[in-house]
Specification:
Length: 414
């Protein structure tokens, strides 16, 4: 922690969808007044679907609408599209396409991985290991295991706010059946030492299942299945410029987990239910679009992060929660004395979208920031700014200007 165009008309009873907000570039307040939608800096919550993803999804809806389980021509066309998408996304993590299974999103993927891996192993090995800074979808799955009698070890960051590889490895013993750790923390951008940790765990306890929630790192960091040493990997579409409602779970060859959804036997019998072909096609198109530019986009995110921190460095009392080595796409800052929600509302009125933390924990205090050792008075004043390839330097400068305006307004101070 360091201290430092015109909009279309809308009816009185309007119903603005996210796609309309993103593509028509406007928002409305409760008085139905129109104003320009200016700056989106909440990409860790969700990203705007890219043109390629939208086109692929629309094509699947209108031109390739068959059920991939059907054996007629339309079904075969849909099956070919599904197979191509599976190959594209598996290739992006240097994995095997037959090991990638599509889900409704990362929450389902992580729940399936954790509960499915533990179900048939806990009787023999009743211990599971995770960290205290996981996404709510992972935390809740471990809470359920604990309620059902499992011994859950939750690794806390050390006094420097770090989780070292040895802390993860030392928490595992011969009674541990599962280790699950995120690759990148969704609130601070902290990068956990997953490859080093999982490699050591596998050397000592080869039968222990390793799961990685790679959602915030996917397409931002180079991820390779073998190098990560993860048996199970959770991915999400809407964090990588694809539609919402689609994700994937990579299940390493030879790794057995319980079937999650039962029914028609789709996804090789692992996850029943007709596949969401439009969303899957959009997911693959977005991954294909991003695959060749990971290093270039990472460097751009580093530049944007530096611009952000430099532009707010003269604000009295400003605090940077994110560590220097954090993923540059996610920046956690705080302005003590100013409540996060008040700042968010002020930003929103100025046409700037940021968040206070995980979008999946709306209205709740952040247990993640607390675990990282961030005092309540700072956590309560925290904003999360997160970038995408569309973020411009001017967006950052505008955010900094508005934050300085807020700093001067005694009326919004706690």
């Amino acid at each position: 922690m360091q201290t430092k165009g015109s909009a279309p008309d809308v009816s009185d009873n309007y119903n603005i969808t996210l796609s309309l907000l993103c593509y028509n570039k406007y928002v409305c307040n409760n008085n139905n007044e129109r104003r320009t939608f200016m700056i989106y800096l909440d990409n860790a919550a969700t990203t705007k679907p890219c043109k390629e993803a939208v086109e692929a999804a629309v094509n699947a809806l209108t031109e390739c609408f068959g059920n991939p389980s059907s054996t007629h021509a339309e079904g075969i066309r849909a099956k070919l599209l599904l197979d191509d998408a599976r190959q594209t996304i598996a290739k992006a993590i240097s994995g095997r396409e037959e090991c990638l299974f599509f889900t409704s999103g990362a929450t389902e993927s992580s729940n399936w991985a954790i509960l499915g891996a533990a179900e048939n192993r806990l009787k023999r090995k009743p211990k599971v290991v995770t960290t205290a800074v996981e996404h709510p979808s992972v935390k809740a799955a471990f809470d359920k295991l604990e309620k059902n009698g499992a011994e859950v070890i939750r690794i806390m960051p050390d006094e420097n706010g770090e989780i070292k590889a040895e802390s993860i490895v030392n928490a595992v013993d011969d009674k541990t059946c599962l280790v699950s750790c995120m690759l990148v923390n969704n609130e601070t951008g902290y990068v956990l030492p997953i490859a080093e940790s999982f490699a050591a765990v596998k050397r000592k306890y080869p039968d222990c299942i390793t799961h990685c929630d790679a959602v915030q790192g996917f397409m931002k960091l180079p991820i390779k299945v073998n190098a990560l040493h993860a048996d199970l990997i959770s991915l999400s579409g809407h964090k990588v410029c694809a539609p919402k409602g689609v994700g994937a779970l990579y299940v390493g060859k030879g790794v057995n987990i319980s079937t999650y959804l039962h029914g028609g036997g789709q996804e090789s019998g692992k996850r029943s239910g007709t596949e969401n072909i439009p969303a899957i096609a959009g997911f693959a198109a977005a991954v294909k679009m991003l695959s060749g530019s990971i290093n270039e986009r990472y460097e751009n995110a580093c530049a944007l992060r530096d611009i952000l921190y430099n532009s707010i460095s003269d604000i009295d009392g400003i605090v940077i929660n994110s560590k220097e080595q954090a993923l540059p796409y996610i920046c956690s800052i705080a302005m003590p004395g100013y409540k996060s929600e008040t700042l968010l509302n002020f930003m929103s009125e100025k046409g700037i979208c940021v968040s206070s933390g995980s979008a999946c924990s709306k209205g709740k205090k952040s247990s993640v920031l607390k675990a990282f050792g961030i005092p309540d008075k700072i956590a309560d004043a925290t904003l999360r700014i997160s970038f995408s390839a569309d973020t411009a330097e001017s967006d950052i400068m505008q955010f900094a200007d508005v934050l300085k305006q807020a700093r001067k307004l005694a009326s919004i101070k706690v």
